[in-house]
Amino acid sequence: MVETNPMLEMETVNNELGKVEIAPEVIEVIAGIAASEVEGVAQMRGNFASGVAERLGRKNHGKGVKVDLAEDGIKVDVYCIMNFGVSIPTVAQKIQDNIRQALVNMTALVADEVNIHIVGIQFENLKHESEIDAELS
Questions:
Q1: pTM given for the model
Q2: Quick one: which H or E segment has residue 33?
Q3: Which PANTHER family does the record associate with it (predicted)?
Q4: How far apart are alpha carbons 100 and 24 in whole angstroms?
Q5: Domain coverage including residue 37
């Protein structure tokens, strides 16, 4: 049985101080923040555990991101909800570009795949119910 190392070891040139490793969770956080910065992304999709953590006041920046460190490279899957009315292909391309650039800038790693999964559309209510009630009165 081959034991897999969950850390990604950075390539170093003549570094006599030791090695540098990056956990996949770090890549998830970087990709999550980069994706949520793109205009048109309403929110990232999380799971039940991340939803409970957020309700308890803990921000989960890696929410909606799955990183796969395979022998053939780094694969990033992003699950997000878009705002209604945006161009999904345009926003998805901006998310891919933003994630690739953030990973290169912060880790010098190049993702082989950045897959964007649109799992929902968020509709914005133009007026809150209280504003509508005030207008009707």
A1: 0.73
A2: helix 24-36
A3: ASP23_GLS24 FAMILY ENVELOPE STRESS RESPONSE PROTEIN (PTHR34297:SF1), HYPOTHETICAL CYTOSOLIC PROTEIN-RELATED (PTHR34297)
A4: 15
A5: 21-136
